[in-house]
């Protein structure tokens, strides 16, 4: 029985060593990464020749998760992306990816990470640059 316990311990340590470096992301780091991804993806779509006609009237997307106005900004941008369906732009994979990333970010910030986020400013004009 002792050999079995020893073998089980070695197997679990081996599995842990193979998955190194395993650092589970916190909700805060997940939100930061998703915000950066959404900001970069929106900029990419705005300057991409294939999607620039769809994104021409869209405002610049800048997401600062420490700004209290960010939830309003994300909701507004989601509604703008969903409004592109009238122009057949929202049916592309790129636009769908941007919309789904923003929806997931909004859910994470409003429901899942609510206690971990701290808004340090409430400057809505700072999100418009």
Automatic annotation (TrEMBL):
Signal peptide: 1-19
Signal as UniProt keyword: yes
Keyword Glycoprotein: no
Coiled coil: none
One annotated GO biological process: positive regulation of transcription by RNA polymerase II
Keywords, ordered alphabetically: Signal
Pfam families, sorted: CYTL1 (PF15153)
InterPro entries associated with the record: CYTL1
Name of protein: Cytokine-like protein 1
Species of origin: Solea senegalensis
């Amino acid at each position: 029985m002792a050999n079995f316990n020893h073998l089980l311990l070695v197997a679990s340590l081996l599995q842990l060593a193979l998955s190194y470096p395993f650092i589970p992301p916190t909700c805060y780091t997940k939100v930061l990464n998703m915000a950066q991804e959404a900001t970069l993806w929106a900029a990419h779509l705005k300057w991409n020749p294939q999607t620039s006609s769809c994104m021409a009237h869209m405002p610049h997307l800048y997401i600062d998760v420490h700004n209290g106005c960010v939830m309003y900004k994300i909701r507004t941008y989601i509604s703008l992306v969903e409004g592109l369906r009238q122009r057949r732009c929202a049916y592309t994979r790129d636009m769908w990816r941007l919309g789904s990333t923003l929806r997931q970010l909004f859910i994470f910030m409003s429901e899942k990470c609510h206690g971990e986020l701290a808004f340090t400013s409430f400057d809505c004009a700072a999100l418009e640059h």
